[in-house]
Structure formats: structure tokens, C-alpha cells
Amino acid sequence: MKRTLCLLLFALASCLDAEPTAEVRILGEVRSNQTGPIELWLMHRSYGEGILKTQLAIIGTLILDQPGPIDWQILVPSDAGEGLTLYAWQDHNDDGAHCLPGTDIESAKTLVLAPATNFTINTTIDLEPSCDGPSWSTSSTP
């Protein structure tokens, strides 16, 4: 019985169309006056439709050991979201969490990314002391 159910589920899953994606390469730099690893979140500015529409849907994450160059290739869903935003936060105290109560302010920044040119986005993100999380109403990338 279990085997039949597994075969049926496998057959149904193999018939589903794959979500269309585009490979995007993000090149640039993360700058900070502090030390510590940096977590980057690539997000759609908005995702979905109607009452299910949401702001800032995470597409993927990347962790850098320290401030410096970015060279990130990622598959981005191409038919369900609009616009791209990059959020970065730096873990100054290496606790794995951003701005826990009772800890010092850590650096963060949100940028709305310019549209990809030939599937490449060039950006620089300057981290600033801030306990703010990602925001959909922020400045665009230079």
C-alpha cells in the first residue's frame, strides 16, 4: 500500500511544471566599519496577487564572512514577484541574531535594486548602525 501511494505521489509530482526562473548575478560590494559576518537576503518587493499579495518575499540568502565583494548567482522566480530588494545585516557579536534585546546595535541596510542588465545587477551596500529589519520603502541602489 505504501509503495503504491509513493509511486502515485511521485507520478503526480513529476507532472507539475517547474516554476520559471531567471539566473541573476549580483556583483558589487558590502561596506562596513565593523567586523563580523554579513547575511544578505534577496527578496521580491512584492509577491503574489490579491489578498495573498505580500511585501518582501525572500528568494534566497547568502552569508559573507566579512565586508567585501559580492559575486552571487541565484535563480530568481520570474513570473510571480515584482522588483528586487537586497537586505543586509552584520552580526557584530556573532550570536546569529540581529539586535536581540540587551545587545548592542548592529549594522543593517535595505536597498531596492535596479533592474538587471543582461541578467546582472551591480550594487554597493553601505551598512549603517540600525536595528531595522527589511523595508519595502527604501532608497534605490546607486
Characteristic key phrases:
five-stranded antiparallel beta sheet, mainly beta, three-stranded mixed beta sheet, 1 helix, Immunoglobulin-like, 142 residues
C-alpha geometry? globular
Low-confidence stretches at least 5 residues in length (pLDDT < 50)?
none
**What is the strand tally?**
8
- For the report, how would you describe the main beta sheet? 5 strands, antiparallel
- Strand arrangement, largest sheet? 3-2-5-6-8
Distance between the termini: 59 Å
Return the structural class. mainly beta
Radius of gyration, in Å, reads 18 Å
User: How many separate domains?
Assistant: 1
Strand content: over 45%
Number of helices: 1
| Average predicted local confidence, pLDDT | 85
CATH topology: Immunoglobulin-like
Q: Order of SSEs, N→C? A: HEEEEEEEE
- Corresponding CATH architecture: Sandwich
Could you name the CATH class? Answer: Mainly Beta
Give the helix proportion (percent range): under 10%
Overview in brief:
The protein has one helix and eight strands; from the N terminus they run H-E-E-E-E-E-E-E-E.
Give the SSE map:
Blueprint: H1 2-14, E1 21-31, E2 38-47, E3 54-64, E4 68-77, E5 81-90, E6 107-112, E7 120-126, E8 128-129
Structure report:
It is a single chain. The chain is 9% helix and 47% strand. It has a 5-stranded antiparallel beta sheet, with no helix packed on it. It has 142 residues and is mainly beta. The protein has one helix spanning 2-14; strands spanning 21-31, 38-47, 54-64, 68-77, 81-90, 107-112, 120-126, 128-129. It has one domain (20-129): Immunoglobulin-like (Sandwich).
